[in-house]
Amino acid sequence: MHILAPGAPTLVLCAHPDDEIGCGALINKLTESGQPVHYAYFSDCAESTKALGFEPETLIEECYESCKRLGIKRENIQGFDFPVRYFPQYRQDILETLVKLRKQINPSLVLVASRDDIHQDHSALTNEAVRAFKHSTIIGYEFPWNHMHSHLDMLVRVEQRHIDAKIHAWGAYKTQTARAYHGQKVLESLARVRGVQANSEFAESYETIRVFM
Length: 213
Description:
By secondary structure, this protein is an alpha/beta fold.
């Protein structure tokens, strides 16, 4: 089953810079094949980045490097400055921003955090994305550390090189090295488990939110 026609744009929606890691192998698989991939983060997380002892703009610089490693073109990256951890209070503004992105990009495929993700920013962005892109195929990427349960029902087979690109992109985030889930082992182990489910060496798992064929 093919849900993305050749040349059709994909839009990756991230509440925070670094969220693209949740779908990094698929992003790399798409860019490798020449598919246009657009990326939008909705908070620069300057406050939390500063609290970690880094310059406020550090996370954004890391994000650009991560996207480069995944194959996303610099001109296809957009960023917004909604306050980190307060997205539920800005749902209408987020929706209006998403509608503008829809008109600008008209994506065939939209990648967002799974609806089972309990982080308030991820959840708010996903809920508004479902409203804004109801005529696009939407799939939800996973962050196991944010899931109490999950409805992951789509497996995307990927190759070693796609996982390597994902791990390399994650390595751009020096601000996140204190996270328990940072580093190669967690990402590779998860990809192998999903690969077993997909009868392949590696895979990523997604929630099917809406599909057009």
